[in-house]
Specification:
The protein contains 19 helices and eleven strands. It has about 450 residues and is α/β, with parallel strands linked by helices. It has three domains: about 5-65, no CATH class; about 70-350 and about 410-440, Alpha-Beta Barrel (TIM Barrel); about 360-400, no CATH class. The strands form two sheets. An eight-stranded parallel beta barrel has the order 4-5-6-7-8-9-10-11, surrounded by six helices. Strand 9 (about 275), helix 12 and strand 10 (about 320) form a beta-alpha-beta unit.
Amino acid sequence: MVYKSKKQILDCQKIETKGKICKIKDVAYFKKNILPNLVDTIILSKSKNLKSFCCQLVYGCGLSLGIYPASIQALYKACGKKEVGGFCVPAINLRTLTFELAQTIFEIAKKIKSNLFIFEIAESEIVYTWQSPQEYSALITSAAIKQGYRGPLFFQGDHFQIEVSKYNKNSKQHIKDLKKLIKQSINAGFYNIDIDSSTLVDLSKKDLDAQQKLNYQICAYFTKYLRKVQPKGIDISIGGEIGEVGGINPQSKELDAFMQGYLKEIGSQEGISKISVQTGTKHGGVVLSDGSIAKVKIDLNTLNKLSKLAKDKYQLAGAVQHGASTLPNEAFGHFPKQGCIELHLATQFQNIIYDYMPLPLKEKIYAWLDKNCYKERQKDWTDDQFIYKLRKKALGPFKKEIYQLPTELKDKIKAVLSQEFSFLFKELNLENKRKIVSKYIRRLP
């Protein structure tokens, strides 16, 4: 049921609001009768104000139940000092069915006694999935309430990126827009932000410092900005990037050039906690003419070298691996062993949803792609490549229809993804990590 007004929600007399915290008078009743309607309203309502109110209400209810947004900074600093380690933190992008899939993650987390995972969304995903940072964090908090989860939630802005064309056209406006997105995200509880200015690396220049200069200057600029706007008592975890994903694999000398320039720029400010690198992967994988995904040979040696250098010389938590969800299963167990601190996962979860989607809805989506995305099609693409590469763009326009799929079908999708998440969490060595998280991540009053 979609709520029609704030009064309709509060008239139930089961929620008492006081500032940002909400007191739930009957938790069982709230979870069964109110929470589903709040989620329906957040996803289906046409009223921006009512959607926002429901998001704020969920946030307040989460706080009252011991569920709160947090920065992973303190834990990553401990990893940089080698106080803890041996695990790889999954950063999971949920592009659709966010409420349902987050529930599955919390179910697994309870079984393995861990809360060491990040929920993230990229700037581009915010646009094409029609999920604002506020909505994204609210849906995941709703899932946490539903599953009885307690503890920190790590929300992350993934690839808050400098787009070269926009930067070259009007750098001031582009930076202003990115700052606006950062503030919106922080207000929604995103206390982990990845700044991707690696797009500005210029490999045509002979000098390494000159190649990385604009990258480290922009990353430093946003580091200073984040430290200025972060909430009192919160040290936002910031990520930098030296090798654009899908490009050329960087080497140790490039990491040195970036870090040395970056550290001079930020001075005494708290810097980045991790560094993203390119090791042979590509977002979404490499799509063959028949729509299948090519096998990728990941450069584990480069990943290991850069992670070790990042820790030993700069006390960072380690290197970050992007574009990993379409890798073969045997690859995932290597990441903790190679010192990879964080693994970004997205496309495979979307693929599973499309695999189970009813044919009439898929055909409707593909027809929409033909009509609305034909300008993005490259001349050498087959129909299968076109559909695979661009079907993510339909997740926003068909958001309501996907959410309203039959419950039994969504349960099948959740069951398949439960196996997927269970496997990943085991391979990344996340079992029994709740104590480690609680040691370093403290809830503020």
